[in-house]
From TrEMBL:
PANTHER family: N-ACETYLATED-ALPHA-LINKED ACIDIC DIPEPTIDASE (PTHR10404), VACUOLAR PROTEIN SORTING-ASSOCIATED PROTEIN 70 (PTHR10404:SF46). It comes from Phascolomyces articulosus. It comes from the Eukaryota. Residues 426-615 form the Peptidase M28 domain. The lineage of its organism: Eukaryota, Fungi, Fungi incertae sedis, Mucoromycota, Mucoromycotina. This is Glutamate carboxypeptidase. Keywords: Membrane, Transmembrane, Transmembrane helix.
Length: 824
């Protein structure tokens, strides 16, 4: 899971939430005046006529109020009784007219933020609010963090079996463990030392984390050593070069200024890009080894004054201490996700595999992670050599100037690891749907951790287990979801989202046909601040659900939605874009399943270290476990809304609006009149038009279904025409996201198939919008640009076609929308 999850909340800051409108044609004549109340529904016309008649305007009785002879205002001559009747009639008519005005405004104001009004909870939803227990969550977290449980280890298997047993104990009887056999690696020996140059600069790194007396698990002799998952086995000897964040632009900056990079060992700090892509960039510039350290200005105590916790390193504060090391995978996350030896097919026991050196997703130079305590002597060795300081290049170590080097002496790096094809264990529970069992809502969290993983991922694992217990309570009360719910505890996420990817690849055909939504929680709780990233079609239900869950720290009955809005510093909270870094990747990027990822964040400086422990959580993360409880409620309400609502609460209209905004940010928007671009922008317009029609019809369908259910009609007794329309609507909503999947995949990384979203090629965590097109434009490749425009146009048209089903034959509005031009 990414360390800087908070970056996702800024990715959509400049994406407006207003509805995109089709451009009108120009004309020299003034535009017609808009009727504020819109088109009056046909059933209101008799009422309007009655109002006119009741106020004395019946046929033949339009008596003038001005006496033209006298020039005075006079009422028509009427009897006293008639005057009284008229007054009473007018009052009644005004009352009815007021009702009409209210009805019309409510039904014509599409931008009304309905999510601000908490939804009346159903009985199952009340159970989801009432059942979750802080005490249960605390106990589950204590158990998950009681031992280090690296993927593929004996402890990992024990926890998989315990999780399976708990699912079954809770009443989810259809639970099993699915085993896969990916490439994993484990540390055998590691060494880093400056072995030549001035004697006073020579040293050997400790590569260990200090024991913290008050945190008993930090003294565990079985703690996982500091290393990089999926790193290259080998050694390197060469001078050290400091390359800032290790981004392509950082290496290019050095190369442009004459700094020799060939044959060097790159020292880079965490942040700015996924760790594996730092190593990929170092390779491209001729480096022979890589070191990645945590600088105190990033997740250490430097610059953290004014926060909710002390600006001190752990254990005095929540921030990274001098000896703390961030472990993590160095697989190329933007190229391949999952097992790097079986890209695109499941890593079953007898699967065909690539040779390690032939995998496009693995580093070819050795690497190690470092603490800032061990990085400081390396920066001393580069002091005074090469380029020093500069914008964004200096960190929080005040005794050095962050000079690039190369160092005068050589460093020796040894990363001796064992590559192993071994078992991992996904725990999969299934609650069969009662009415639409062929539509599935999938919820997941990964279970494996680099060490104890209190925040990452065990806070999410505890929440998943408590949610399973809550569903068990509902099952015992006789509840069954309308749609199937699948609950998964994934393994080996830390090595590269392996457990989830292999499961998706193994079940791809079934998922393509039946999966409606995937809801992911990874680092569930690390503080009090709610954040979410999701497909645009899920934004509205996220807003609605968080409006029903109280904010634990509020003393004024504020909801999580209210706190989220304040955090976003705008009325409507920011929902980020999905990039990479957790188990949602294969669902959205490979198959095209609408997905969301959400959590509570805070002052979290022990990511992927020995100190991400139960003690840290009790002291800093969530001492009362109130946020764990709130997380379960949000996750549970989302799951129930998506699995139980008659019509799945996905909103493609919100998606179309976002796509329109994305398109405006493309450089080709200025040349949208060119023939090569015209069809692309036309396809976006047609998608917006199709979603408006779909949303209008869906709204009427929902109203009719509510009428039936309010009248006591059982779901199995619905009129056949309504059942059919509901089924077809849900089919369209389920498959809408699939329209954006291109079987060909993205150029150079065909595993990623979504044409709208993919991890940024060189940063990894961050999402890239229209990735293939953006990369072609950046490369100024006209041929690739044309190809990707055609590719994107084709997939937007495919998504549009998914919304064209006539499930509401009574729709007589906007007949020009009923037929679309041939998109083929």
């Amino acid at each position: 899971m990414p360390q800087d999850y908070s970056s996702t909340k800024h990715q959509a800051d400049d994406v407006e939430q207003s509805q995109q409108q089709d451009a009108g044609s120009s004309s020299s004549s003034p535009p017609p005046k808009k009727n504020f109340f819109g088109k009056a529904p046909s059933f209101l016309k008799p009422a309007i006529k009655w109002i006119a008649e009741a106020s004395g305007a019946s046929k033949g009785e339009y008596a003038p109020l001005i006496n033209r002879g006298k020039g005075t205002l006079e009422l028509p001559r009427q009897t006293k009784r008639k005057i009284i009747v008229t007054i009473v009639s007018i009052v009644g008519a005004l009352f009815i007219l007021g009702g009409i005005i209210v009805w019309t405004i409510m039904h014509n104001n599409d931008d009304e933020p309905i999510h601000k009004v908490p939804k009346r909870l159903t009985d199952p939803e009340k159970v989801v609010i009432d059942v979750p227990s802080k005490e249960s969550l605390r106990e589950y977290l204590r158990i998950y963090t009681s031992e280090a449980h690296l993927a593929g280890s004996d402890a990992d298997k024990r926890q998989a079996e315990w999780t399976r047993d708990k699912f079954m104990e809770f009443g989810i009887s259809d639970t099993n463990i699915e085993t896969y056999y990916p490439l994993l690696n484990y540390p055998i020996d590691r060494k880093l030392a400056i072995v030549s140059g001035p004697k006073e600069l020579q040293y050997e790194a400790t590569l260990t984390e200090d024991v913290v007396e008050e945190d008993e698990t930090s003294a565990d002799p079985n703690v996982v050593p500091t290393f990089h998952g999926q790193s290259k086995n080998g050694t390197a000897l060469g001078p050290v070069v400091y390359a800032n964040f290790g981004r392509m632009e950082d290496f290019q900056y050095l190369a442009d200024r004459g700094v020799n990079l060939t044959g060097t060992i790159a020292l880079m700090r965490y942040g700015g890009a996924f760790r594996g892509l730092k190593i990929r960039a170092a390779e491209q510039f001729g480096c022979i080894g890589a070191l990645i350290y945590s600088d105190p200005i990033d997740d250490g105590p430097i610059g953290k004054d004014g926060g909710e916790n002390p600006a001190k390193p752990y254990p005095e504060g929540p921030w990274r201490s001098p000896s703390s090391v961030q472990r993590g995978s160095v697989q190329y996350a933007s190229i391949i996700t999952g097992d790097p030896l079986t890209p695109g097919w499941a890593a079953t026991e007898n699967a065909t595999r690539l040779n390690r050196d032939d995998s496009p997703g693995l580093p070819q130079i050795p690497s190690l992670p470092l603490s800032y305590q061990d990085a400081l002597p390396l920066l001393r060795a580069t002091q005074g050599h090469g380029i020093c300081g500069g914008k964004d290049w200096s960190g929080g170590l005040t005794t050095v100037d962050y000079c690039s080097g190369p160092s005068e002496g050589n460093a020796y790096l040894a990363n001796i690891v064992e590559d192993r094809i071994g078992p991992i264990w996904n725990v999969v529970g299934r609650i069969e749907g009662s009415e639409e069992p062929d539509h599935a809502i999938i919820i997941g969290n990964h279970r494996d951790a680099w060490v104890y993983g209190a925040v990452d991922p065990s806070s999410g694992s505890a929440a998943l287990l408590e949610l399973a217990r809550t569903f068990g309570v509902l099952l015992k009360k006789g509840w069954k979801p309308r749609r199937t719910i699948i609950i998964i505890s994934f393994d080996a996420e830390e090595f590269g989202m392996i457990g989830s990817t292999e499961w998706v690849e193994d079940h791809r055909d079934w998922l393509n046909e039946h999966a409606s939504v995937y809801l992911n929680v990874d680092m569930g709780v690390g503080g009090p601040d709610f954040m979410a990233a999701a497909c645009p079609s899920l934004q509205r239900v996220l807003y609605e659900v968080t409006s029903n869950v109280p904010d634990p720290r509020s003393t004024t009955n504020e909801t999580v939605y209210d706190a989220w809005s304040k955090l976003s510093d705008q009325e409507t909270p920011v929902v980020g874009q999905l990039g990479s870094g957790s188990d949602f990747v294969s669902f959205i990027s490979h198959v095209g399943i609408a997905s969301a990822d959400f959590a509570f964040r805070g002052d979290y400086g022990v990511y992927h270290s020995n100190y991400d422990s139960f003690h840290w959580m009790e002291k800093f993360g969530d001492p009362t476990f109130e946020y764990h409880e709130a997380l379960v409620k949000i996750w549970g309400l989302l799951t129930l809304r998506l699995s139980d609502d008659p019509v799945i609460p996905l909103y493609p209209g919100d998606y179309a609006t976002q796509i329109g905004e994305y398109a405006k940010q493309l450089p080709i928007y200025e040349t949208s009149g060119d023939d090569s671009h015209k069809d692309f922008f036309k396809s976006i317009k047609k998608l917006a038009k199709a979603t408006r029609r779909f949303e209008r019809r869906r709204g009427r369908l929902v109203e009719r279904l509510e009428e039936e259910f309010n009248n006591g009609t059982d779901a199995t007794e619905l009129p056949s025409v309504l059942s059919k329309r509901m089924r077809v609507a849900n089919e369209r909503l389920t498959h809408f996201e699939r329209g954006f999947i291109d079987p060909e995949g993205l150029k150079g990384r065909a595993w990623f198939k979504h044409i709208l979203y993919a991890p940024n090629l060189w940063t990894g965590y961050q999402s890239q919008v229209f990735p293939a097109l953006s990369e072609a434009l950046e490369a100024n490749d006209a041929e690739a640009t044309l190809h990707t425009i055609l590719q994107a146009t084709s997939r937007i048209r495919a998504a549009t076609r998914f919304l064209k089903a006539d499930y509401d034959e009574d729709d007589d509005e906007d007949d020009d929308d009923d037929e679309f031009e041939d998109d083929n």
